[in-house]
């Protein structure tokens, strides 16, 4: 009887543990599809990537379709090259698509905004390993302020560009 | 000359004690494969794990609740009270879950293990087992070791889960943080590999260290009432210090280097 009770309580303990692990894995960590599923790679060259990091999201209209998996500097022209791993669920974007680095909220983290372009005859689809041609760099607040001050100074001397 | 002799004797005593501890651990680890020991191990999981459940659940609940309360008063000043979920979940999974569980475990179960094995030694039960050709490492030490190694990560997981639910209770139900942002920001911040698995690894290391120290201190205690009391105190002090020190090393290895 006593042994029976011990085994019962240990069983309850084990079930509680499994429940806790499931809660942590599914409800708290929430494995997303893009981190595990099959992906294909696209590359994009930016002038300035701002605060973009590896694992930043790639979004189309707010929906996450992939992640940034690598950021490195091109050895020839010294511009940053960003590798985007897009889930194979979302294939066949036209090659006129553009990417820009955006910020979620005023102080939020930066992500890659993906704008699918129009597709008509003669426009091919983006395939694994392609470079995106149309890119917009991150807005760097210091540059903006600098430009703003420069323009102000320029208009005073009636010499603005 | 006497001084050098003293230093030498101390060093040798330390080294042989480490050696004996390693031999005991070795014996305990390789005593696993006998099927007869599984009921004994289940019995020890009951003593070490199930009976620690109450203190773990209560402290997990209150630590989660207090963290939500403290975090809320600071975050609400920046209008960032939605980040309460990630804050509570990350601090529990990465640090508080494994560490507080290990400290409580050392106090609740480690001291009991030391006292039990120490008293077995003092009343010569261990020697009688040996007289009957039963290996005390296999019969007494190994089930306790494996039970501790299994129970502590399990308790740490329960601690973190209960703490996150406690944070939800205070943050969402009482203070009015949006339930959706509590969970969704938590989900987008917490990573299974980096946070959950690393937390389990941490508590596995703590389980090994705390159980090892507890069992060895009992097995190696001076078989008098004074010796057992000293061994029990040392178990709690040494395991707590070891857990806190190891926690820094493990954190630096897991999260410090990007």
From TrEMBL, chain A:
Gene Ontology molecular function, alphabetical: phospholipid binding; phospholipid transporter activity
UniProt-listed InterPro entries: ABC_MlaD, Mce/MlaD, MlaD_Phospholipid_Transporter
Domain Mce/MlaD, chain residue ranges per copy: 39-117
Record-given protein name: Outer membrane lipid asymmetry maintenance protein MlaD
The organism of origin for this protein: Alteromonas confluentis
From TrEMBL, chain B:
Molecular function terms, GO-annotated: phospholipid transporter activity
Transmembrane feature ranges: 12-33, 45-69, 145-175, 196-216, 236-257
UniProt GO cellular component terms: ATP-binding cassette (ABC) transporter complex
Subcellular location: Cell inner membrane
Pfam assignment, any one: MlaE
Function comment: Part of the ABC transporter complex MlaFEDB, which is involved in a phospholipid transport pathway that maintains lipid asymmetry in the outer membrane by retrograde trafficking of phospholipids from the outer membrane to the inner membrane. Probably responsible for the translocation of the substrate across the membrane.
Subunit architecture: The complex is composed of two ATP-binding proteins (MlaF), two transmembrane proteins (MlaE), two cytoplasmic solute-binding proteins (MlaB) and six periplasmic solute-binding proteins (MlaD).
Stated name of the protein: Intermembrane phospholipid transport system permease protein MlaE
Organism: Alteromonas confluentis
Organismal lineage: Bacteria, Pseudomonadati, Pseudomonadota, Gammaproteobacteria, Alteromonadales
């Amino acid at each position: 009887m006593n042994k029976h009770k011990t085994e019962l309580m240990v069983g309850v303990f084990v079930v509680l543990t499994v429940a806790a692990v499931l809660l942590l894995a599914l409800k708290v960590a929430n494995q997303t599809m893009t981190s595990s599923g099959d992906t294909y790679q696209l590359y994009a060259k930016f002038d300035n990537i701002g605060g973009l990091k590896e694992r930043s999201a790639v979004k189309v209209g707010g929906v996450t379709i992939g992640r940034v998996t690598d950021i490195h500097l091109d050895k020839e022209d010294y511009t940053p090259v960003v590798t985007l791993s897009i889930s194979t669920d979302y294939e066949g974007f036209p090659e006129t698509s553009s990417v820009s680095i955006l910020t979620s909220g005023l102080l939020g983290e930066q992500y890659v905004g993906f704008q699918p372009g129009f597709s008509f005859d003669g426009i091919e689809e983006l395939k694994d390993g392609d470079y995106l041609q149309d890119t917009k760099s991150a807005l760097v607040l210091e540059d903006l302020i600098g430009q703003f001050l420069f323009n102000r100074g320029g208009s005073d001397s009636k010499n603005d560009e | 000359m006497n001084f050098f002799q003293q230093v030498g004797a101390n060093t040798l005593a330390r080294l042989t004690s480490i050696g004996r501890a390693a031999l005991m651990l070795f014996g305990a680890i390789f005593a696993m494969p006998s099927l007869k020991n599984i009921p004994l191990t289940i019995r020890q999981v009951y003593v070490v794990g199930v009976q620690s459940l109450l203190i773990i659940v209560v402290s997990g609940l209150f630590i989660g609740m207090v963290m939500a309360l403290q975090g809320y008063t600071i975050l609400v000043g920046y209008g960032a009270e939605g980040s309460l979920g990630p804050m509570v979940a990350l601090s529990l999974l990465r640090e508080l879950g494994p560490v507080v569980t290990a400290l409580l475990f050392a106090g609740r179960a480690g001291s009991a293990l030391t006292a039990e094995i120490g008293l077995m030694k003092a009343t010569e039960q261990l020697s009688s087992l040996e007289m009957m050709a039963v290996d005390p490492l296999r019969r007494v030490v190994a089930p306790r070791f494996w039970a501790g190694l299994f129970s502590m990560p399990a308790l740490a997981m329960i601690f973190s889960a209960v703490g996150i639910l406690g944070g939800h209770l205070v943050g969402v139900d009482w203070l009015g943080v949006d339930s959706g942002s509590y969970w969704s920001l938590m989900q987008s911040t917490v990573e299974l590999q980096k946070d959950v698995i690393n937390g389990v690894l941490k508590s596995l290391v703590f389980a090994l260290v705390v159980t090892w120290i507890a069992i060895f201190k009992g097995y190696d205690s001076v078989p008098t009432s004074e010796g057992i009391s000293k061994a029990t105190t040392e178990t709690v002090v040494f395991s707590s210090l070891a857990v806190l020190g190891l926690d820094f090393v493990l954190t630096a290895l897991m999260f410090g280097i990007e």
